């Protein structure tokens, strides 16, 4: 669903909440963004979305990560979130995807969750280098980094959804 700002402001709570949850699968975040409607302009909406996602709790990060495919893998579901994931990961070619399988497995073994990064506009090589550098993080630091990446993704997606 793509709407203009007026459409977002005037949408039913259920419609707007569904759009927000497609951007970031965190109910508290969606509810905080909804509570501040109506927005005077897109910048105000995106600023509110960024503030509501800063910071995400560890539980919220885990909840939101469950809605994302692994980098280098195609989404298994349909819908706006899956479509955005396909677009965001367009810089990951088949060779990089093959390298990601091993790197993702190592990351998941170390941290216990899927590697998450704001992939939009970045090459597979850049993303692989990021994953490898983050392997040095301790789990508490890494969950914070993943939360920051989720916040970036949410604002990016919301900017696409509300034109």
Break the fold down into its secondary structure elements and pairings.
Blueprint lengths: L4 H6 L2 H11 L3 H9 L6 H11 L5 H8 L14 H9 L5 H18 L12 H11 L4 H23 L2
Helix pairs in contact: 2-3, 2-9, 3-4, 4-9, 5-9, 7-8
Envelope shape:
elongated
Secondary structure tally: strands: 0
Strand content: under 5%
Helix/strand/pairing category:
mainly alpha
- Whole-number radius of gyration? 16 Å
Relative helix content: 55-70%
Element-level helix/strand string = HHHHHHHHH
Instruction: Output the number of helix runs.
Output: 9
The major pleated sheet works out as: none
Task: Give the integer mean of the pLDDT values.
Answer: 88
The termini sit apart by 11 Å
Key structural traits:
163 residues; mainly alpha; 65% helix; 0% strand
Descriptive report:
- The chain has 163 residues and is mainly alpha-helical.
- The chain has 9 helices and no strands.
- The longest helix has 23 residues, at 139-161.
- 30% of the residues are buried.
């Amino acid at each position: 669903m793509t709407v203009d700002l007026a459409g977002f402001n005037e949408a039913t709570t259920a419609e707007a909440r569904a759009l927000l949850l497609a951007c970031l699968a965190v109910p508290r975040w969606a509810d905080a963004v909804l509570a501040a409607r109506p927005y005077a302009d897109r910048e105000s909406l995106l600023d509110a979305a960024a503030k509501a996602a800063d910071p995400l709790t560890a539980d919220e990060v885990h909840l939101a990560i469950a809605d994302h495919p692994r980098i280098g893998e195609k989404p298994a579901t349909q819908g706006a979130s899956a479509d955005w994931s396909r677009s965001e990961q367009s810089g990951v070619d088949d060779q990089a995807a093959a390298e990601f399988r091993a790197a993702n497995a190592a990351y998941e073994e170390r941290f216990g969750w899927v590697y998450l990064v704001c992939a939009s506009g970045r090459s597979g090589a850049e993303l692989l280098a990021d994953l490898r550098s983050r392997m040095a993080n301790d789990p508490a630091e890494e969950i914070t980094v993943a939360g920051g990446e989720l916040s970036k993704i949410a604002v990016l997606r919301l900017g696409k959804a509300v034109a």
